[in-house]
Design goal:
Layout lengths: L17 H7 L1 H21 L5 H12 L5 H14 L4 H11 L12 H37 L4 E6 L2 E7 H26 L18 H11 L14 H27 L7 E2 L19 H22 L9 H4 L2 H22 L4 E2 L1 H9 L7 H12 L1 H18 L3 H7 L1 H6 L2 H7 L9 H10 L4
Antiparallel strand pairs: 1-2, 3-4
Length: 451
């Protein structure tokens, strides 16, 4: 029976992607653990800790292993009897392996198997995320350059402030995602770490050659050996979860911006519409920003899981189930959901509809209010800033109250006329000169990107 929405036939595609789903599925997880146990046996045999024949038998059994319902049912029954994470799987494998199965997981503890496989999986996922983010950055570079000079209303506190360009807005998204890619690359070495230390981390069960066995074991699995056991040191996973939370939050920021700009009363940007998409079963006219909304749903889950992972950094002594068992839920789920965030962005960004005309219409609809700063700054050269602010503020309030254009109020104001001529006021109300250095910042941002 399927109980998690990510596994639903109908809704699962909204929460996961095929590329990562199999990695964290039950069969994928079990096969990964069994492969780690197999490699461990081979390395231990090479170091004469277990019989060579046992390692060969374990390898043969693994290569022919089918993780089917029968295997999982056997393992599940033993888990319910013992409440031990791996004993059921070990017994199910031993049943198929015969005498060599006596040497399965020799001297190793649950963490040695599960942490090693988790890190192998996360390194793969990390590399996938770097590729996805690289593509997203390429889309954002195009968006930023295409619209570096496309003026629109800049907004603060939800209200129109001064003109910016849409390319500038897109470049701020690019800025964030470039750091996400850098952070993932920087943490790769910290994440690509194996674990083999035994019950309390002392390696007492691995004999005099423990250090050599650990090194060979890790390197054979594509990981680096740790300098010391990290059974109770979970900052690697916390760093991973917090990086995922940052990535998700950036996706949410983009989604929320598009969600708001797509409102009909604003109408400046919209998701690309796919024919046949239904926004409402009761309101046939609706075109909802479905992708943008869902980015928020997914990213909230990751942020909550990242907070949970931070709680897991605090352990009692050398093993604390309260502080690590939750990882089996939150690390896979957060990784799956973040991959969906990245895939949604890959779909959303190249197909954005940017309505330049509506942007100009909204700028004009401010009745010149967006130029108030330009007037104040020019006036400041004659009166000082505070005095200039007071005069322009009074005129702006009149424009608000009367619904007249700010420029008309300024021209009629006797005090303003003492310091600024109509021609000088005209210069302040030039749209082409109103977006500051947005275009230059876009070019500088893009020039610094190494894709």
């Amino acid at each position: 029976m399927v109980t998690h929405i990510s596994d639903f036939t109908i809704y699962g595609s909204s929460w996961t992607t095929p590329e990562t789903t199999e990695l964290f599925s039950e069969t994928g997880l079990v096969r990964g653990w069994m492969e780690v146990m197999t490699v461990l046996a081979e390395v231990q045999a090479e170091h004469e800790l277990i019989p060579v024949e046992a390692a060969r038998g374990i390898r043969t059994t693994f290569e022919n292993l089918v993780v089917d319902e029968e295997f999982l049912t056997e393992a599940g029954e033993d888990f319910r009897k013992t409440n031990h994470s791996l004993i059921g799987l070990i017994k199910a494998m031993q049943k198929r392996c015969g005498d060599p199965g006596e040497w399965l997981c020799y001297g190793a503890t649950v963490h040695d198997i599960t942490d090693t496989q988790m890190c192998r999986t996360l390194v793969y996922v990390l590399d996938l995320f770097v590729k996805r983010i690289t593509r997203i950055e390429k889309d954002l570079v195009k968006l930023a350059l295409d619209h570096k000079d496309t003026p629109m209303c800049g907004r603060t506190h939800g209200q129109i402030g001064l003109p910016v360009t849409f390319g500038y807005k897109a470049a701020t998204w690019l800025d964030e995602f470039d750091r996400h890619r850098q952070r993932l690359r920087e943490m790769r070495a910290r994440l690509a770490i194996g674990q083999l230390a035994g019950g309390v981390g002392s390696q007492s069960s691995l004999g005099p050659g423990a250090q050599a066995i650990q090194q060979a074991f890790c390197r054979k699995l594509g990981l680096s050996p740790p300098p010391i056991s990290w059974t109770t040191t979970r900052d690697r996973y916390a760093e991973w979860l917090n990086n995922l939370a940052l990535i998700g939050a950036s996706g949410d920021r983009i989604g929320q911006e598009i969600y708001n700009l797509q409102r009909p009363e604003i109408g400046e940007v919209a998701e690309g519409f796919v024919s046949g998409t239904v926004g409402s079963i009761t309101m046939p006219q609706k075109r909802n920003p479905e992708i943008s909304e869902h980015l928020g749903t997914l990213s909230r889950l990751v942020r909550h899981h990242a907070a949970w992972m931070m709680e897991n950094l605090v352990h009692d002594h050398e093993r604390d189930g309260r502080s690590w068992k939750g990882e089996w839920l939150i690390i896979p789920e957060s990784s799956l959901v973040t991959d969906k965030v990245l895939v949604l962005l890959q779909s959303l960004l190249p197909n954005l509809v940017v309505n330049k005309e509506k942007m100009l219409e909204n700028l004009a609809g401010t009745n010149g209010m967006i130029y108030s700063e330009a007037v104040m700054l020019k006036l400041s050269a004659r009166t000082g800033k505070q005095t200039a602010h007071r005069h322009v503020y009074n005129c702006a309030m009149q424009a608000h109250e009367t619904g007249r254009h700010l420029k008309t109020i300024l021209v009629e104001d006797a005090d303003i006329a003492q310091w600024l001529s109509p021609a000088e006021l005209d210069e302040c109300f030039e749209l082409n000169n109103s977006t500051g250095h947005c275009s230059a910042m876009v070019e500088r941002m893009v020039a610094g990107i190494d894709l």
